[in-house]
Model the fold of this input.
Amino acid sequence: MHLSKEILNYIESHNQEAIDLLIELAQIPAPSNHEEKRATFCKDWFKTQGCKNVYIDEALNVIWPIGVTDDNPVAVIMAHSDVVFPDTTPLPLAIAEGKIHCPGIIDDTANAVALMMAAKYIAQNNLLPKGMGVLLVVNSGEEGLGNLKGSRQIVKDFEGRIKEFISFDDKNSHGVNTAVGSKRYEIEVTTEGGHSFNDFGNRNSIAQLASIINKLYDVTLPPKGKTTYNVGLISGGTSVNTIAQQAKMLFEFRSDERDSLAYMESYLQSVISDFREKGLNISVNLVGDRPCGIEIEHTKQQALESRAQDANKKYYDTAIDFGPGSTDCNIPLSFGIPSICIGCCYGQGAHTREEWMDIDSLDGGIKVAFEMILHYFY
Ligand SMILES: [Zn+2]
Done:
């Protein structure tokens, strides 16, 4: 579709309002699983703009259903509220030389603002969706141990009804159309430990955990797709003269191929059971589980991607580099629902405290968001 001159004028005349909204929203802390403050802010904002029946679900998704009945098909468009930063006080924000610096600004606050501005336009003009209902969602739990909580809840609550799924996330140059599945584990070793001199010879949990890690890093990667693994954090022990009684780590593996993900799972389990057979006490706790995709009707997926390419080309004059990724799309892709993740801003430094967004890039991003969303409306 093409945005009319009237809509383009609307977006341009609301540009400062969008920037002001972004500045306000970006400072509200929203660590994964504690998005309450942002969710409440967004819900109130939607209501003030005239969006009806906006609600917050049990996963802390803020949802505006438009033309959604008890059983009609729906399109889902979402952007996530959570950030990777654990801050519970306002996030630091600074504006300099055409950039907004703030942790979480491109991942994913600016994208949420693009979606919200489209919602405002729809509410003000009483637009009606055509062919299917539309869910506009500022969702929770995309990052890390949020474990795609928000996306899971939407796909569960609207099971069998979602025809297309779009997530606005991160910067505009990169897109995701394939799900990288992952599993994340907390693995803990406990031993008898003891005094480093008097009890020398007793098993040391840190040394045992290190042996497990070495074994995990001996894996021969499966040939199908791209598969990775990582020990990201270790902790344990008591003091320099204590044989460590306890040590644990966070371990993950990822792949864009189901079979390869299953291979990594069975390798991990075989390593753990070998060490258990030697009498070691190991607890294994699954802390993250993101599925790979399944086969998707090619023409429908292609149509969705080319709509995004057209919009991006128009307003940014670049192509989106689509590839595999771990995003909110993992859940719908695992059900065979055509899904893409694209960005509505430009900046750098996602997941670092130096994250910034180019202020001028928001205008094009809002236009991309309008074009993608208004596709579903008369
Ligand atoms: Zn994100």
